[in-house]
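Not sure how to ask, but would you mind making up any protein sequence you like and the C-alpha cells describing how it folds?
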Amino acid sequence: MPVGDPSGRLLQSLDRFFTERVPIGPESGLLVAFSAGPDSTALLWALTRLRRERGFRLEAAHVDHALDPHSAERARRARRTCDELEVPLAVTERPVAASSIRARGLEAAARAVRYDALERTRRDRQASYVATGHHRDDQIETVLLRLLQGSGWQGLAGIPAHNRHLVRPLLEVGRAELRAALAASGLEPARDPTNLDLGRPRNRLRHQLLPYLEGLEPELGAVCLRLAGAAAGARRRVEGRLARALGPQPSPAGAAVGLRALERLPPALLPAAAALLHRAAGADYPPSRTAVAELARQLGRGGRIGGDCGDGWRWQAEGDRLELARPRAGASRFTYTLEVPGEVELAEVSLRLKIGRASVAAWMFEGSPTRTALGPALRAGDAVVVRNRRPGDRLRPLGCGYSRRLKEVLIDRRVPRAERDRIPLLCVGGKIAWVPGVTIDEAFRVGEERQAWVAQLEPA
C-alpha cells in the first residue's frame, strides 16, 4: 500500500480502523452513506481500493430530501460516480416533513430521516455497517457547537466512531487530507449549496467563528479533540460502572434495565444511565433533557412510569424493569399531501389512501376500520394531509361534545401501543378528520346530503 501520498495515508487510516476498531473481511458488507460531496466521494473511492485487499462487499446509498433545487442533480452525480467506481447505488427519495422541521429544526429533522433511510437500506441489502464520511474537522466543529449549546460532559465526547451498525472511519483524517486524496482520485464531487448557508449554526461556525478563533489560537482544534477524547474516556468509565449496576439487557422491543437499581442512582447519574439504555437499545441519540427530567419526576413520584423520549422511542415500566421500546419498522414519522379527489401511497405503513365522491349508503353510519364517509366540511380541491400522530394531537370524536387528546382516545379504544404510530391520520385544514378504525371528528359528520366523500385504505 503506498504511504508517501495523500491517498496512501488515507488508505492506511482506513486499513487501521477496519482492522483494530471494526474488523471486516470477505464475509462483511459495507454500505457508504453517499451524498456525492467531497468527503463521501473520497471515502467511497478509498474503500474501493481497500475492497481489493479485503474482499468485502461494498455498496452506497444516497438519500434525496429535495430541500433545494439542486438535489436531483446531486442524485444524478452520485449515480455517475458509483457507475465509474463500479459500486451498486441505492437512491431513496425521503422528504422532510414540515412539522418535523418546525419541531426539531431543519438539520436535526433531515438527519433523523436520513439515518432512518440508511438503516432501512442497510437491512434490505444485508450490510454489516453503514459508513459515513464524518472526519476530524467535523469532530472539532461538533465539540465547539456543543460547548456553545451548553452541552454536558457526555455531549462533549463528540461524534462516536462506532455505534452498533453505524461507523465513522475518518475521524482521525482531516478535511485537507481528504481533499488531497480526492484530487488524486480524479473524481469530481457534487457541491451542496446549503453548506454555504450562514443561517445554519454549523455553517456559521465553520466559515466565520472557527477561522477567527484559530487565528487567535492555532491549537484550538487539537484542544477540542483532546477534550472530546477525555469526555469519551469519562463516559466509558461511568457507563462501565452503570452497566454493572443496572445490567442492561436486550429485550424484544429494544433494551431494559433494573428499575429498582435505577431508582437508587444519584440523580446526577440519571442522564448517563438513560443514555446507556438508549445505546444498548440501538438508538442513534440519547434522550432529551426534557425526557430525562420527566423520567426523574416519575421515578421520584413512585407511580406509573412511562412516556415518549424522542424519535419514536418510548420508556415503559414492565414489572421490575424499565424497558426502552424500539420504534416498529415502518413507524417512523411520515407526512403526505394530496388534493381531493385523489390518492397517495403511504410507503411507511404499506397502504394506499383513496378519496372520492360516492352516494350516501347505509355502511357510512355503521363504522369500518378501512373506510369512512366525510361530510361537506371536506370540499373538492382541498389539500389534505395524511400523517401519523404527533404530540398534542386533539380531535372531537363523533358524538362527543368536547375536544379530547388523541392519545386518550386511542387508549380508551384499546389500540395497542405498538400500532398507534402506524395509524395514518387524515387531516383537513389542520384538524384531524379521520382516525382509521377509531372515529371521525364531529365536524366531518355526514348529514342529510345525498353524496359524501369516501376515504378508503387499501394495501399498497
The mean pLDDT is 88. The longest strand covers residues 351-359. The chain is about 40% helix and 20% strand.
